[in-house]
Each structure stands twice: as C-alpha cells, then as structure tokens.
Amino acid sequence: MGDFYQNGVITTLHNLSRESVSIEEIEAELVQFSKVRPLSLVLPSLYSELQGPALENIINELCEVPYLSQIVIGLDRATEEEYKHALKFFSRLPQKVKVLWNEGPRLQAIDAKLKAEGLAPKELGKGRNVWYCLGYVLGSGQSESVAIHDCDILTYNRKMLARLFYPVANPNFNYEFCKGYYARVADGKINGRVSRLLVTPLLRALKKIFGNLDYLEYLDSYRYPLAGEFSFRTDVINDIRIPSDWGLEIGVLSEMERNYSHNRLCQVDIADTYDHKHQSLSVDNDDGGLSKMSIDISKAIFRKLATNGVVFNTETFRSIKATYYRIALDFVETYRNDAIINNLNFDIHSEEQAVELFAHNILKAGVHFLENPMETPFIPSWNRVTSAMPDVFEQMGQAVEADMKEFGQ
C-alpha cells in the first residue's frame, strides 16, 4: 500500500487516497489541463498483441478516456492484411488515431533514406518503434505532453493512464518527466525478476565498488526502473537519444538525468497490481528472453558510467560479477521472507537460477563492452535527424496519412 516516504534524489508521488479520489475526478482535471497542455498517448505494439486478451481490454478502457488529443500506435511485424485488420481493430477509438505501419513500403522508404545518412535505428524492436512514434508526435504538433505504455498489460485500467499523465499534464507542476511504478505481484507470486534480481543488486554492487556516484544514486531512486510506462513534456523528444535494444528504459532514465535537474523528474504510483506478458529465462540463448534483456541492460549501465569517467577492465567486471552475485543471493532471501509474510508463492530454485544467469551475463556484457569500444547503440536525436533531413516530419506525416487512406477502406 502507499506510504509518504521519499527515497533517493527524485520526487515520489504516492497513492495515499486510493478510495477517496475517483477516476472521474482525476479525468475531469485532466480535461481542463488538456485545454492548456494537449495530451497524446503512444502505444508501441506488435501485431500479435492484437490477438491477445490484454490489448482488447486496453482499447476498451481507452474508449472511455476523454482528455487525449491523439493516440499514436506503432505497429510492428505486420503484413498488409494484418495492417488492414489493425486499422479496423483500432477504429472504434473515439480519439484521433494514427497507426504507423512500420513494415509498410512508405515508412520503409523513409527508413532507407535515414539509413543512407547513418541516422536510422540499427536494430528492430521496441526502441525503434518508440523512436518513430515520438518523431511522428513531434512532427504532428498535436500535443505538449506525451505518455507511453506497453500493449501487453493484463491488469490495465484507465486510472493507470490518468495517474501517469497527471504530473506532466498539470500546468502547476514543473515536471518534465514521470516514471510509473507499481508492485509486480500477480497470480499469487512476486514477478519482475530482472528489476528485482538484476538491476537493484547490480546498482548496489556498483556502489560498493565505485562509491555512491551521482548516477548510481539517481538510478537507485526509481522504485521500478524497468517500467515501460512513462510520460514527459513533448520538448523532451528533441534531444533524447535512446537505445534500440532492451536497454530502452535504462537509456531513457539516463538521458533524463543528462538533460534535466532532478527536481524536474518524478515517479508515480499508478497501480496496486500489475501483470503483463512474461519473458522466458532463455538460459541457453543470449539473443532472446531475459538473457538478452539482462545483457542489454547491463551494457546500458556500463556505457553510461563510462561516459561519466568510470574506467573498466576485465578485472573490474570480474569483481562486479562476484559482488553482484553475493548481493543478489541476499536479495533472494529478502524476497522469500517478503513472500512468506504476504502468503505468496516463492520458488527459491528458479530465483537463484535467474541470479546465476544474470551473473554470467553481467560478465558477458562487460566483455562485449571492452571488445566494442566504438559501438554506438543509441538512435540519433530528432534534432540531429531534422538537421540532416529538414522535411522528415512532413514525409512521415504524408506516409502515415497515405497508408491509412489506402488501406483503411
């Protein structure tokens, strides 16, 4: 349940009045805020998510949301027929809706032009999808604040979105960025293994080795740093550089720390319970599941520390791995006790399996970092893109409109 404790260097906005504030009251405020600061929602989606139970419910909930200026949907891995189906699927939304067919020939042609300039995302995935959606939002000029959330949230309700928007929509607040957080508890067990068993113990291990660096204190201030739900003022989009891999969430947090003072950033409690599609551990496959995720996230943290002047070598990464492993095992015991007192199921074997995999992958991420010093995993900022191709937003807008007109019949 909510509490008023403030930890770390960013503001935490709790849910202290769960029953006394209705969704209608919050939405009425957001309707007023939207007259001054128009609001847009970005939904990065795989076509396969249209066939699952989560997105159906999300769309039903969004149909009741009265304050959005537009909804921008990035559709990945869709054929022409699937794109047509997606247009029908989203057509019942009453807001202004734009669907970016990322595999369509028109947007692919723009991607090819950017690629020729060395400006296109190098890797397929959520980061690329989000980047193009944000570019479209920026070019459309329809909003001053934007929220993003995933399309696989099984426990979604519209109050989640309202609370996510509120800190950056309220003109009396000065926040540029807001990160959502929640308890990852569902089906009688504690979820969120990558955040619980990788990110937090890794940050604590790095603190132990390098001291309380400002960046480590900052990241450790977020209660759920890997949450896919965040909101921000639209002007944030211009300068942000994000990874195209699983380091997206850490990369966004790192960019906000680079560009803004801590008092312009916050996190907000958006849900009592949260559940979404779970990734497999993928012990034998570094290119999938939680294995790839843990490598990408570790690399994202190491890269940021390097930009802050931290020097790494092979021995350093061995020490990080050993320190992490001991701290993470202690966390397993902590979470076990937390589960017991809350009458939740807890599998010590699977938890320690995850810790062992993450420990190996921290070292793999470190070796990759040392062997690829010239790697540039970040997608260029939109400021750079528009400098090289001034009409890119116009081209994107025309491509999206043409796709929707041709295939939305």
Map the helices and strands.
Layout: E1 11-13, H1 23-36, E2 39-46, H2 53-62, E3 68-76, H3 80-90, E4 96-101, H4 105-116, H5 126-140, E5 145-148, H6 158-169, E6 177-182, E7 185-186, E8 189-190, H7 193-210, H8 214-219, E9 230-233, H9 248-259, E10 265-271, H10 289-307, H11 314-341, H12 348-371, H13 382-388, H14 392-407
What does this structure look like?
This protein has 409 residues and is of the alpha/beta class. The chain has helices at residues 23-36, 53-62, 80-90, 105-116, 126-140, 158-169, 193-210, 214-219, 248-259, 289-307, 314-341, 348-371, 382-388, 392-407; strands at residues 11-13, 39-46, 68-76, 96-101, 145-148, 177-182, 185-186, 189-190, 230-233, 265-271. The strands form two sheets. Strands 1-10-6-9-5-2-3-4 form an eight-stranded mixed beta sheet, sandwiched between helices. A two-stranded antiparallel sheet has the order 7-8. β3 (68-76), α3 (80-90) and β4 (96-101) form a beta-alpha-beta unit. α7 packs parallel to α10 and α7 (193-210) crosses α12 (348-371). The model has no long low-confidence stretch (mean pLDDT 93).
Number of strands: 10
The rounded distance between the terminal residues' Cα atoms is 48 Å
Strand order of the largest sheet: 1-10-6-9-5-2-3-4
Mean pLDDT: 93
Report the order of strands and helices. EHEHEHEHHEHEEEHHEHEHHHHH
Largest β-sheet summary? 8 strands, mixed
- Please estimate the helix content: 40-55%
Radius of gyration: 21 Å
Strand fraction: 5-15%
Shape: globular
Number of helices: 14
Structural class: alpha/beta
Stretches where pLDDT is under 50 for at least 5 consecutive residues are: none
